[in-house]
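Technical note accompanying the year-one report. For the benefit of new consortium partners, we illustrate the data format agreed upon in the data management plan: each record pairs a sequence with a structure-token string. No post-processing was applied to the example shown here.
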Amino acid sequence: MHTPNITPIKHIGIVGCSAEGAALCYKTICSDSTKYLGEHAHPEISMHTHSLAEYVTCLDKNDIEGIGDIMLSSANKLKSQGAEFLICPDNTIHQAFDYVQQKTPLPWLHIAEEVVRSAKQRGFNKLGILGTQWLVESDVYPNKIEAQNLEWLRPNPSQINEIGRIIMQELVYGDFKPKSIEYFQQVIAELKQQGCDAVILGCTEIPLIINNNNSALTTLDSNRLLAEAAIDFSLKS
């Protein structure tokens, strides 16, 4: 009897940070995998999350190695659970990615690389960056954007602070206030006026309130793009 040669599907490890972002990524992988694997099917997935408070403590102190050590703790636990590669559905803590890469037990996909790759493929030229103040003021996205010869723009400082407040005081708790949604829409409209042709939803909770239907700019959903990249990688030999 002939046995078909079926490529094994890689086990995905999710290094979680905030509950809402990690849960949305997990759900997206499970639901979108059916397009490739059939009804109800998805790759094996394991997830580990340390307390968000541990990450915030390190972020407030700009302790990049501390952030990386927490990520590596999750990475090692996920390897022991059988994960074959890792993703982190949190843009902010990617500030520690270079440190993590030096000590990681498994390969990773980089969320900003996946987002910017999609932007380049879709022909966008100038990207607005939204996210926590820690993320937006960092080089996580600018470095990846400039490597693709694209332009980028941050909101102004007061907008960065208010968006950061909304994310950390509302969105991570699943609290979606109409006034906060309107604020995001206003900031995106201003980015469009300043020449942006797409906006990076660089916090994995933002897609819970902002999408192409209520945004003045085409959205680059970092959560979904990472989830789709993880599915694709899990299916490749």
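Partners are asked to follow this layout when depositing records. Confidence is low (pLDDT under 50) at residues 1-5.
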